[in-house]
Amino acid sequence: MGNSLIKKYPDAEFIASIFSNYKLRGERTISEHLTIDNIPLFEALLPEMVVYKIPTYNGKFSFRNYIFNLFKMLLKLLLRNFIGMFKISWWNKKNLLPENSLVFLVFNKLMLSQIVNPILRNFKHENNLVAIVDSNYSFDNTHIRIIDSHNLSTFKSIRLIFRLIKTKNLILKDLPGLHKSLHCFSTLEIRDFINWLFYERIFALTHEVIFANNLFTNAKCKCIISTDIADPKARIFSIAAKNNKIKSLQIQYGLIDESSHEYRFPIFDKIAVFGENSKIELLKHGFKDDWIVITGSIKYDSNNYLNRQNLHSRFNIEKNKTIVLLASTYFIKGYESAKLIADQVILDIFNIVQDNDDLVLIIKPHPILNSERHLRHMSKKFSKIYFAKPNEDIVGLIGSCDVFINFGSTSNIDGILANKLVINPVYDSWKEPNNLLSTGLILSPSNYSELESCIKMALSNESIIKYKKANSSKMQEFVNKNIHKFDNNNFQRIIKLINL
């Protein structure tokens, strides 16, 4: 699969559909076999498979590694069950979810800090707030009730895994027939993909299925709220809530454009989006108009959200130096060519800063995957390069720099709203769809010479004033279409939507 898959079948969604609807022994489909307690695991995994795994799968599978991981998982389940014997009260579902509770699904630290915590800070003394988490997160509300998604393990999880092993073996026995439907791929490639699907993903999610059903059966929640449409755990809890007629709300986190294929698999009742452009893109992805509500983002609820810092003092930089801020990005397996292009851009930035006495560079490593070691290795031959903390909020850094460079992330919006010189390089064949580039508020150099000219623009006050003056009318249009309103009332619009 992998690159060969992209060449033979550009549409990973089509591949997933063939696999999902294939009937084993001419009877039930694979998707039906993988439906547990009315929760279709294949549907829960669809965004992850279509966006991340199928297009980049390299056809290599280490059976030994995954058997070892399976053994560790079974051991953890046994341990949880042993501990659970002494905590029988956990089974009381009524004590877990209070009536009319607002349930936040929190499986990502960034989404917690930028979306969930700003919402929670607006609640004062409510006792109906609940967060389902998979890690030890810090919440800005002392009244919220925390539920670990790994609680309440049962021996049913282990029995379920053995049942799924039988399903996997049934699929493998029917490989010749499946190969006829996916004839562009060898039986070996299909077999290895099936092993990956079960050993790495499906087996690991069985507990969430059982827990989600136990949690929401007969629960009287007002609404469950999620910020990650692609996370399989969030999707499992959302489906379980929907099965129990509990209202669900998705809150937009990142940019939505033509490449946002994860939005082609909605499982919620409503989605709160940044602005008109987000709605237009979702309609293109097949959403119904009444699913989408433009609320703006709570992240932009105040003109003071930028929380500016004194970077010259913090990093001991001379006051007359122009600060360039670089936000690194990360790449999942299979996108090595894009990573090489990004590394070339970064080296070009290093050289441009090195050759100009008036420039210094601050690098903000991406917090999801620790890229700091790689970046430090790349920069060891250069001077005037400083590193911010990977896990600190980049917004304050953006508000304090002179030039902001990134690779197409949502932080482009922060740079625009902070009225900074924003640069989004688009070297070589890296032509990711990005609606923000068409606003005219972002510079998009395609080679070293153009990048150097863009960065050096910050050294001339006259050039900066001319550039910002030319873009003043575009700024208001940008806010109207992408942020909706900058009026400090986005929270109220989201709460109104929850209470509908």
Helices, strands, pairings?
Blueprint: H1 3-8, H2 12-21, H3 30-33, E1 35-36, E2 39-40, H4 41-53, H5 63-84, H6 93-96, E3 102-106, H7 109-120, E4 129-133, E5 145-148, H8 155-173, H9 175-181, H10 187-216, E6 223-226, H11 232-243, E7 248-251, E8 270-273, H12 276-284, E9 292-294, H13 311-314, E10 322-327, H14 336-354, E11 359-364, H15 372-379, E12 385-387, H16 394-398, E13 403-405, H17 411-417, E14 421-423, H18 448-456, H19 461-470, H20 472-483, H21 490-499
Parallel strand pairs: 3-4, 3-6, 4-5, 6-7, 7-8, 8-9, 10-11, 10-13, 11-12, 13-14
Antiparallel strand pairs: 1-2
Helix pairs in contact: 2-4, 4-11, 5-10, 8-10, 10-11, 14-18
Please estimate the helix content. Answer: 40-55%
CA(first)-CA(last) distance: 45 Å
Number of strands: 14
| Main pleated-sheet profile | 7 strands, parallel
Approximate strand percentage: 5-15%
Which residues sit in consecutive blocks of at least 5 with pLDDT less than 50? 1-10, 83-94
Instruction: Look at the structure and name the CATH superfamily of the largest domain.
Output: Glycogen Phosphorylase B
Biggest sheet: strands side by side, in what order?
A: 5-4-3-6-7-8-9
